[in-house]
Amino acid sequence: MLTLLAYLMIICFMAVIMTKKMSAFTALTTIPIVFAVIAIISGQAHLTGSTKGNIKILKALAGEGAKEVPKSMDIHMGDLGTLILEGIKSVSVTGIMLLFAILFFSTMLDAGLFDPITEKMVFFAKGDPKRVLMATAVVAAAVSLNGDGTTTTLICCSAFLPIYDRLGMKRINLAVLVILQNTIMNLLPWGGPTARAMSVLDVGGDILTFLLPGMILSLAYMIFFVANRMGNQERKRLGVKELSDAELRELTVISDEETLAIRRPKNWAFNAILTVGLIAWLVAGSFIPAIEVPPAVLFLVATSVALLVNYPNLKDQGKRIGANGGDAVQVIILVFGAGVLMGLFNGTGMADAIANNLTTIIPKSLGGFWGIVVAIVSAPGTFFISNDGFYYGVMPALAKAGNEYGFDNMHMAVASLMGQAFHLLSPLVAFIYLLLRLTEVDMGEWQKEAGKYAIGIFIIFLGTSLILGTLTNGAWGIPFFIAPK
Description:
Blueprint: H1 2-18, H2 24-41, E1 46-48, H3 52-62, E2 72-74, H4 80-111, H5 115-125, H6 129-143, H7 149-167, H8 171-185, H9 192-201, H10 207-238, H11 245-252, H12 257-262, H13 268-287, H14 295-310, H15 314-347, H16 350-361, H17 370-384, H18 387-404, H19 409-416, H20 420-423, H21 432-439, H22 443-468
Antiparallel strand pairs: 1-2
């Protein structure tokens, strides 16, 4: 009965998300509460000691000084609040990290950190289609650092559409490069899918250590193979047209007065050093325990420094926080909503029920390859289902089954992100309609063109994770990586 309730909860959650009957936040909070109440009233819900959160709750419920935690315990209506708060507590650090990460990169965009990069890439191109395409790939990757697809689309289209039109280049190439570079950079810990995986599976920012090799190789693949191939085709079709420095400068001039008012070109070197140093420390901390600092603390300090240096006036600081806070809040409330879902899903025993069911359905011979199974499932899963539906509805059950086969949550989090190579090609992604409207490209044609290159990204993700052992539970791989902390 509990297994049936768990499956029904997942189906209901996915249904209301996909049909847009409820927002992700309201679905994350109300649906689990409804099903948890049903489970309690029917007498099916029970606490288990299989997860860290449940063990903490059990100790509290068993009374102070209890030496042993019972393997199971009936849940009463009064325990709902405890379960929900425990779930929120489990994702609170991730929420804080995301808040300051989004504010930091939004501040860097406001200050104009990426403006010189865009300008240099336009001048580097000098009217050569091949150079234009490679510059597009570099700028799209750089601007995607803040994890926002809408921002990336607006900046890249504003910078490159005039030169594409001037040279008669195919706009579909711009649309493909922008979306695939954003796909890769979206795997950063403050990006949407990784943030969801981190909150659902309770893993930290050190997930970047296991994703970074595949991301670097994928970026190189996009710049030196995909953009290069597109460039050769455009060169053959159009030839090379030289543009004067004056014409190129005209393409990079910012004319909007509000945008100019918040730019801080004099601080560019400081902002660049701060950003590179932050990312370097974030990654190095995963390798060197002596310098490891929680990502939330790193981003908190970096955001404070960025605001103090770039906007020392209190009113200016308030305006920047107010302007960028909306984007941060939209992500963070989803993280806390996920905490509600996970607290009830795990605490009532529904997660264990589904995990036990899956382990009986799936042949035990595939248990050792569960990471690969999840990686493959994530491709159609994140394309046909929204990220909210997949990570909050499907992954808890898949992760629980993986735990039964010896895979920890870090392995499962990495595996679940492999299919992101295809996610942004889904019609469920809102900002792609902005991209398609600005580039005036047909969706079907764009999906077909981008899809063939997305396969390459998926293969790189998959191959790199197999080599590092993060999909095989250490059956093979580089020993340094196979045991996530």
